[in-house]
Amino acid sequence: MNRRTVLLLAVTCAVAVGNIYFPQAVGPLVANGLHVSPDAASALVTATQIGYTAGTVLLVPLGDRLPHRPFLVTLLGLTGLALLAAGCAPALPPLLAAGAVVGLTTVGAQIAGPLAAGLVGADRQGAVLGTLLSGSTGGMLLARTFSGTLGEWLGWRAPYLVAAVLALLLATVLAFAVPTTVPSSRQRYAALLAEPLRLLRTEPDLRRSCFYQATVFAGFSAVWTCLALLLAGPAYGLDTRAVGTIALVGAATMLCTPLAGRLVDRHGPDPVNLVCLLGVLVSAAVLTAGARGGVPGLAALVLGTLLLDVTMQSGMVANQVRIYALRADARSRLSTAYMTCAYLGGSAGSWLGVRIWSRAGWHGVCALVALLAILALTRHLLALHTAKNGGRRRRTRRVLQRVPSTASDRNE
Fold it and tell me: For the chain, how many structural domains are there in total?
């Protein structure tokens, strides 16, 4: 696979992920434009996220059953049509329905990963997956800023219509630029849906990769959910725009994830996971200083969130390389299991973070991040210890097999 195809798939990831996040920035504009309450308009974000969860469970496993190129093109085409319907919606109910369809079909990033992993050798998977993750990060960051600015200028419908044009143009390009692939499975749809659960039961490396990402993403979600509460509180007295400004530091991960991918290719996923989990633990300590307020506290928040972003995303590259190596014929189903666990972890982290904030404040949230990192780190060290002992036992068996066991053996 050439560099142009990698970049095209990275753009696909950016567009797909951006469609999930840009509705967050146009909620107030939707409320004014359709004359509904802000609370009612916020249901648009929920509808999109529910649709995305359903797409992960119901559509992503089909990536092992259908050829990747027509599947991606179809998904993007349906996304473009749903975005067009959303941009033309006359009232909130049809807008919510269209938003749910957008979420359902905009799972292209989860199809692009297995596709790219199958088109390159094992020694390049980390670098390629890191590039795709950079695209996803860029889509998440740019979508909010672009949609908010465009919506203020031309109204809330404009971001949906522009996103529709982008999705349809990208579908057209992909129809000619992406290499053809042969489906890896002939299983029926019902069997494909059940396969992620079976893989979680039978693949220990999948379970531990899911555990790493679920715990780290839970801490990540807790921090970003409660950061707005901290900045709006007495320690800082800032508005929500400050959260968006701090979030821009996450753009650094666009540079770091390809580097992390190359390190995974060179040293394997386990050392990179170890460094990343230690980095999450350090970020929790740095973020604790953010409770003091003022310039030093703000600097600690910027540095801590940057470290947390980089380590979470770099760890995700390592996890994806590990799970894609388990079964080349089931990468989409492996991705379904992995992303579902990660999403559940993030949702649980947001829920738990708010409740800890109400009882223990920012220090409690940082303690939660540290505890989750320690749990993942402990699990990782146990896995490394088990792998080391297993390797030692295998070497011992090989030595014993080469040593004659009796005098007659030696005579022979």
Answer: 2
| Domain housing 23 | 3-177
Give yes or no: residues 148 and 224 share one domain.
no
Half-sphere exposure of 58 (CA within 13 A, CB side): 12
Q: Which two tokens stand for residue 185?
A: 């499975």
Quote the distance between the C-alpha of residue 336 and its chain's center: 11
Is residue 203 domain-shared with residue 173, that is, in the same domain?
no
| Cα separations in angstroms, 374 against 101, 272, 279, 312, 383 | 39, 16, 11, 14, 14
Which of 123, 143, 177 marks a domain boundary? 177
Q: 20 pLDDT exceeds 50?
A: yes
The per-residue pLDDT for 248 is 74
As a whole number of angstroms, the distance between CA 205 and CA 386 comes to: 12
pLDDT tens-place string over residues 42-91: 788 788 888 998 999 999 999 999 999 999 999 999 999 999 999 999 99
Same domain, 80 and 136: yes
**Nearest alpha carbon to residue 370 among 289, 242, 282:** 282
Structure-block tokens of residue 41: 């308009």
Per-residue pLDDT reduced to its tens digit, 229-250: 888 788 888 765 666 677 777 7
Structure tokens at 266: 């060179």
What digits encode the pLDDT tens for the residues 148-206?
778 878 888 998 999 999 999 999 999 998 888 888 888 899 989 999 999 999 999 99
Residues 124 and 21 in one domain: yes
Give yes or no: residues 255 and 167 share one domain.
no
Answer yes or no: are the C-beta atoms of 344 and 211 closer than 8 Å. Answer: no
Residue 124's domain is classified under what CATH number?
1.20.1250.20
321 touches 264 (CB < 8 A): yes
Extended strands (E) in 41-160 = none
Cα gap 161→103, rounded to integer Å: 16
**Threshold 0.90, pTM exceeds:** no
CA-CA distance, 167 to 282, in Å (whole number)?
A: 39
Instruction: Classify burial at 296, counting beta carbons within 10 Å of its beta carbon; exposed 0-12, middle 13-18, buried 19 or more.
Output: exposed
**Does 388 fall in a domain?**
yes
Among 312, 251, 328, 265, which Cα is nearest to 122's?
Answer: 265
Instruction: Tell me the mean pLDDT in the region 128-140.
Output: 88
Q: Are 369 and 219 in contact (CB under 8 A)?
A: yes
